[in-house]
Predict the structure.
Amino acid sequence: MTSQLEKKIKSFSSQNIIDAMSVLGWDQTMIHGSRSLFKGKKIFGEAVTLRFVHFRKDLLEDLPKKHESPEYKAFELCGPGKILVASSVGPWESIGGDIKFLRLFQKKAAGIVTDGSVRDSKALEKYNFPIFAHSFTSKQGPGIMLPFSVNDNINCGGILVRPGDYILGDDDGVVVFPKILVNEIITITEEREEIEIMVKNELTKNPESPGKYYPFNDDTYKLYEELKKNQKPKNNFTAGE
């Protein structure tokens, strides 16, 4: 992705992505149960996936150990523009904490997304990178689940995540979309933003039911085409309105 395209995508909200994908006929891809643990943080980057599975003693014995463990292999694949996306076996189960995620901080990873939880809230806050998870937890992960595979297709929060998918998250949620949709998402979102500004301005000048124009319908596009002939819609709203 060029820096210009990346800048545009990063400026969008998670809702923008969902709306544009809906227009393209894709199902909604918000990862359920994953929310920003540090408000105001935005996350964007490519997914490096890590899959956890339920603990079994024989599996523990068979899996690679120490730095060869799948989780540490995944960490080493992370860096600028890369997000660790980890699927947990339960919302309160820990995928890691302070010492493990120090490595992601060192690698300058773009952040962490999981449908599980993370430990050590005070320490992680100091790392100052986005973390999207179910919650913080006191529980340990070992004995409950084991890191099993790296860069496989995973089910995270009910959503399929493939290695290299784009991840975008904000205070409203975290969403997943494939690279092939980037240009179409940008085109659709820019037009929808203009239309939404136009609809709000029109309903402010002539108060009536939003149903006349929203969801978008023939009247919406007719009004949009008429106004577009004259000038680009301007946002007359201020923050908080």
Q: What stands out?
A: The longest helix spans residues 182-205. Residues 199 and 212 are 10 Å apart (CA to CA).
